[in-house]
Amino acid sequence: MSRTLAKQWEDYELIDAGNEKKLERWGNVITIRPDRNAYFKSKLSQKDWYNQAHFEFIEHTHHKGEWQNLKNAPLSWEISYNDIIFHLKLTQFKHIGLFPEQQANWEFIAKHIQPQQKFLNLFAYTGASSLIAKSKGANTFHCDSVKQVINWSKKNMELSNLKDIHWVLEDALKFAQREVKRGRTYDGIIMDPPAFGLGAKKERWKIESLFPKLVKTASKLLTSKGFLIINTYSPRLKSKDIEPILNQYFPYKKIEISKLCIKSSTGKTIEYGELSRVY
Ligand SMILES: C[S@@+](CC[C@H](N)C(=O)[O-])C[C@H]1O[C@@H](n2cnc3c(N)ncnc32)[C@H](O)[C@@H]1O
After folding, report:
1. b (16+ CB within 10 A) / e for 249-260
2. Which pLDDT value is given to residue 61?
3. DSSP-derived secondary structure for 229-243
4. Whose CB among 59, 130, 188, 217 lies 3.0–4.6 Å from 119's, allowing a Cys bridge?
């Protein structure tokens, strides 16, 4: 399958990867985080890694764990991507507020969205894609079901000197279905659902069962010339499962399915799930 390679930028570098971990630089801060996708051997030695790193996340249970501050560094800081500023901080999960591999989508959104067009970000986390769309002048709607990450996104918006993003604290599918009933449409939609989660009535879902509903709903919301981006991270939802669903709902549009990847400065490539683009 083809690959879409995210690019590093001045404030983000995947320095090295391997032994199920990655060594990353965020501005001046260097972290070691677990990543099962880095199943190969690292290029640099462990000594090299620990000489550089400020923080390491030690995973206890599935994704949960604790950060070790190896060099007495501040626990929150800011980085930029072009004119956008992201506030980063250590969380009880291994994440710190940004998924840098999404840079490939930020570039796509920046290229395809036009001023005044409507843009919808579902499962929007700390709002990177919303900020990119807003910085291009789009009328931007940002939906996430967790209040803390909406607040975090607002902070990023203010730091980036942007305003007027429409914040929606709601279940993503429920909001999207409601928008269909209200007859609303969007020129660009991105969704980044987790592999499993909770719905509007706290019911458990897995992405392989939710995916067809999300695509069907998006097909009703998207304008005829609009674009849709969907990231999925589940071994149970492969491109051969995704393709017929996209073909069914978007028979007249271009469909691209690839593996979203990022390459370290030492030449190691990490693959992150399936990236689908319809445009
Ligand atoms: C993988 S993150 C998205 C990362 C984002 N694309 C980025 O690059 O910054 C998934 C997000 O989905 C949100 N989420 C989980 N279940 C949800 C639901 N049912 N409705 C809306 N948002 C949900 C989580 O709060 C989290 O912020």
Report:
1. bbeebeeebbbb
2. 81
3. EEEE--TTS-HHHHH
4. 188
Q: Tell me if 153 sits within 8 A of 129, measured CB to CB.
A: no
- Nearest to residue 191, comparing CAs of 218, 164, 170? 218
Residue ranges covered by each domain of the chain: 7-82, 99-278
pLDDT of residue 84: 98
Q: What band does 278 get if pLDDT is binned at 50, 70 and 90?
A: very high
Identify the residue whose C-alpha is closest to ligand 1 atom 18: 171
Q: 99-278 maps to which CATH number?
A: 3.40.50.150
Are 21 and 50 contacting, i.e. CB atoms less than 8 angstroms apart? Answer: no
Ligand 1 center to residue 124 CA distance, Å? 5
Atom of ligand 1 nearest to the CA of 128: 9
Residue nearest to atom 9 of ligand 1 (CA): 125
Give residue 86's pLDDT.
98
Question: What is the pTM for the complete model shown?
Answer: 0.96
Topology of domain 7-82, CATH: Immunoglobulin-like (2.60.40)
Give the pLDDT confidence score for residue 63 in this predicted structure.
Answer: 73
